[in-house]
Amino acid sequence: MDTLVWVIITNAVVWIGLGAYLIFLALQQHNLAARLTQWEMLRHD
Amino acid sequence: MRSLSIVPAMLVLSGSLTFACCQWLIYSYAPTEATMGLTQKIFYIHLPLAWWALFSFFLVFVGSVSYLLKRAPGADRLCAAAAETGVLLSGLALVTGTLWARKAWGVWWTWDPRLTTTLIMWFIYAGYLVLRGLNPPPQRKSLVCAVVGIAAFLDVPLVFVSARIWRSIHPAVFAAKDGGLEPEMKLTALGCVVSFGLFWAGLLWLRKRQLDLRDRLDTLASAAQQQ
3-class secondary structure for chain B? Predict the structure, then answer.
């Protein structure tokens, strides 16, 4: 395989890994926001 | 405090943007290495990943010591966030390292001291994260994790010095007196380290804040159950 393609693949692997972690953080944030909303509703009741 | 809420996201964004700018430094400004050619460009991604992973594990150590001394839950949460970030970055450093090794050495993996100690370090901290995922009483878990966080750090300095004290085929470019790097290469490497540092700080901050909120909600939920 061409070296440049190899270097591009390496870059892509890194950004896929970091992107996957950012998606994980976004999902966690979504869950926390849902819990917080539920808690606020319970308190309001 | 409210005004600080966008800072971690801004750090992640500025890290991404500056690293995008670093691509110009990597491919246009830094000269192509004579022996390895374009393959050497992987070094500019691999180095910051490895350095920030090591720094993350140093933070786990500092946080663990702090927790043992002060029993501050915030220090425990910092350890959790730093360990996650460190495992992510060291995992990516291992992957980029194997991709580089395949082109430079002709093999995907070799049991070189630097590679072996790094793999051991990755497994230790992955195990640490598994431990954090278990469900014993919170204070007991924090205490056990703090002790493990200190013991786990024993491998980290070993990773750093392994290429210097043992015969290793892994390059130790900054250890050599002349460095083995052209000034343009050094500047590019520094730029990549700084840009990844911004990204790393943003990730760490975001995760720490999430863990703070999760703990607060858990406390509220358990207080409500007791009433």
Answer: CHHHHHHHHHHHHHHHHHHHHHHHHHHHHCCCECCCEHHHHHHHHHHHHHHHHHHHHHHHHHHHHHHHHHCCHHHHHHHHHHHHHHHHHHHHHHHHHHHHHHHHCCCCCCCCHHHHHHHHHHHHHHHHHHHHHCCCCHHHHHHHHHHHHHHHCCHHHHHHHHHHHCCCCCCCCCCCCCCCCCHHHHHHHHHHHHHHHHHHHHHHHHHHHHHHHHHHHHHHHHHHHHC
Give average pLDDT by consecutive 10-residue segment, chain B, 227 residues. 73 92 90 85 94 97 96 95 97 95 90 92 96 86 94 91 79 64 89 95 95 91 80
Range of the domain at A41: 1-45
The interface pTM score, or ipTM, of the predicted complex is: 0.90
- Verify whether the Cβ–Cβ distance B88 to A18 is below 8 Å: yes
Instruction: Kindly list the structural domains of chain B, giving each domain's residue range(s) and its CATH number in brackets, ordered by start.
Output: 7-170+182-221 (1.20.120)
Distance from CA of B210 to the nearest CA of A (A): 7
Query: How many domains, in total, are found in chain A?
Result: 1
Confirm or reject contact between A23 and chain B (CB < 8 A).
no
In this prediction the pTM is 0.91
